[in-house]
Amino acid sequence: MGGLLEQRYRVDSVLARGGMSTVYRGRDTRLDRDVAIKVMDPHLTADPSFVLRFEREARAAAQLHHPAVVSVHDQGVDGDQVYLVMELIDGGNLRDLLNQRGKLAPAVALSILGPVLSALGAAHRAGLVHRDVKPENVLIGPGGQVKVADFGLARAIGENGVTSDSEILGTVAYLSPEQVETGAADARSDVYSAGIVLYEMLAGQAPYRGETAISVAYQHVNSDVPSVPEIPLALDTLVRKATRRDPSLRPANADAFLAELERVGTDLGLTPQPVPVPGSLPENDRTVVMRPVPVAVGATPPSVAEATRPVVPKPPLNPGLNPGLNSAAMTTVHTGPPTPPPGFPAGASATRTMQRPEPPRRRPAQKRKTQAEKLEEERKRRKKLYTIWGSVAAVVVVAIGLFTWYVGANRYTEMPSVAGQSEQNAQVLLSKADLTGLVEKVPSNDVPNGTVISSDPGPGAELRKNEQVKLVVSRGRPVVPFITAGAEVDAATKEIQTAGLKTVKDPTKDAFHDTVPIGKVVGLDPRPGTALALDAPVTLILSKGPPPRLPVPNVTGKTKDEAFAELQRAGLEAVDASGDDGPENNGSRVVRTDPPAGTVLDPTQNKRVTLFYENNNREVEVPDVTRQKVREAKEELERAGLKVKVEFNKSNNATVVNQSIPPRTRVQRGTEITIVGL
């Protein structure tokens, strides 16, 4: 049984440990439920400003209520322990699944990313940005339930300015270019990180790798994400669109990304798949597997690098001496002559006990060498030295040659010729040459889709084994990309140019749109998905804003000339009815219009108003309007040139039960007829 945080949360076993925090399995003793407790490391909590930011971000994250978001139950500070209480997810995370299975099938990858984008979309609508979307923060619970964790913690830690190399290396692989360059992040930054996660699920590895965080960050800023080999073109295009270096070319937020993801999945026939649950946490995520550790309130969590070792005392230098004595106590230094034992006078006794030294022996006289003998000896000595140094030099040369051969032998390979091969065959040839291919797909008019156009370096180049080479693979003829309605002209132009096409404008094709502002893109001509030749023109159809609304004025009772003039001032086109409803002269009076007065017309569809006139010297036949609705009966009688009066129930939905003039009776135009509504 572990200690209690704020006398409520019991801390039990360690679930995971990272560079910034430790996650424990815990128990809420008040509500009697299992929870996950994230305890921040002391090097962060020593800064009071971090504690304030942590509390602010935790409160913001707690406002998110979404089935794919890990719920935040509570946050608090107990002594020097700053902690977060969250929903406990028994299972693993996406990193565990990738470590176990490598790359995932496209249908499974989309089934995982869908809930992630749904959760991020809820956050973006609430004005929150995750800032740290990565496989470690995508949890997979029982039954394959996918949830996103750690909303807001990246901002609190980043603003504190205290990070570890391991944490940077674990996160920088998913940071957007703008986060690397300026530290700024918005919804499109989360879209970029989610696109990198999708790339890793489909390819089995992140697009950028390096020995240092700086080298990986440099690639994010200066390189486009490469194509994912062996996946459908539409899905590869979506990955590249989500990971554009220019934020304006990405989907605007997670909801827009999710809509395009669902569209691509539907077009490719990818049905949702059950999400596999990781069997166990891999070593690089669990960091340390420990027995349940009781955490006392106010205590510092043990460091990952700490090891428990018994302390073994050093043995004394001399076992026979008192172990309490130090080395100075066990050493006696004597200077001068030896001290005589007690009872002997100094000097004399010492002299008597010493023996007289023997005189030195003289060396026998040697015969002096002649000058010739000395020269001969010098010659032999030099010859011997030359022989020795020559042998040494030969050995050194041979050793250097052997070392060079050993170091260089079997470390280099030759770049094979892959142009004209299929992407799959080219990868096989590179694998046989111990090389790795990095694929970049480009449009081409002549080279079929999936065929290698060129390589960098070219064939015959000498390379180190396991080195990466660039394969330029054809995507076939360019395809008009999908552009979201309302996109900026510059963003749409870049997207079309990236597809290998060019943009043109034609004001005659611009159109009115109810919601898209003036000057924004509402469509393309040809339509998205159309295959064209390289550098073929694509017309941007721009919005002219909402269409003007033209209400039909009431010109009943006016002469023909007066009615025509008023309709023209209103921007409408007036025409006369034909036959008996036409005018006798310019003084004829209008009895009705079609469409009726008050109708609002869309000028893009129809601006014509037909005028019907009253001609009293002409006879008309009274139609039968019984059993019709009052509104329908009035319209039919007025079209016949009669005046209508409604009695009893005047509602338009009432039913006509009687009419004052019998049907098929011929009367003068303009005669009044009374209908009875019931």
- In the CATH hierarchy, the architecture of one domain is Orthogonal Bundle
Relevant CATH superfamily of one domain:
Transferase(Phosphotransferase) domain 1
Q: Provide mean pLDDT, rounded.
A: 79
Portion of residues within helices: 25-40%
Outline type: elongated
Contiguous helical run count: 18
The CATH class of one domain turns out to be Mainly Alpha
Return residue spans where pLDDT drops below 50 for at least 5 consecutive residues. Answer: 156-170, 280-357
In angstroms, what separates the terminal alpha carbons?
83 Å
What topology, given as strand order, has the largest sheet? 1-2-3-4-6-5
Instruction: Please indicate the percent range of residues in DSSP E strands (runs of 2 or more).
Output: 15-25%
Radius of gyration: 46 Å
Structural class: alpha+beta
Largest sheet: 6 strands, antiparallel
* CATH topology description of one domain: Transferase(Phosphotransferase), domain 1
**Strand segment count:** 27
Task: Report what the structure shows.
With 678 residues, the chain is α+β, with helices and mostly antiparallel strands. Among the domains are: 4-87, Phosphorylase Kinase, domain 1 (2-Layer Sandwich), CATH 3.30.200; 92-285, Transferase(Phosphotransferase), domain 1 (Orthogonal Bundle), CATH 1.10.510; 413-474, Trypsin Inhibitor V, Chain A; 489-542, Trypsin Inhibitor V, Chain A, CATH 3.30.10.20; 616-678, Trypsin Inhibitor V, Chain A. 31% of the residues lie in helices and 19% in strands. A 6-stranded antiparallel sheet has the order 1-2-3-4-6-5. α4 (106-125) packs antiparallel against α8 (187-203), α4 (106-125) runs antiparallel to α11 (254-268) and α10 (233-242) packs antiparallel against α11 (254-268). The chain is elongated.
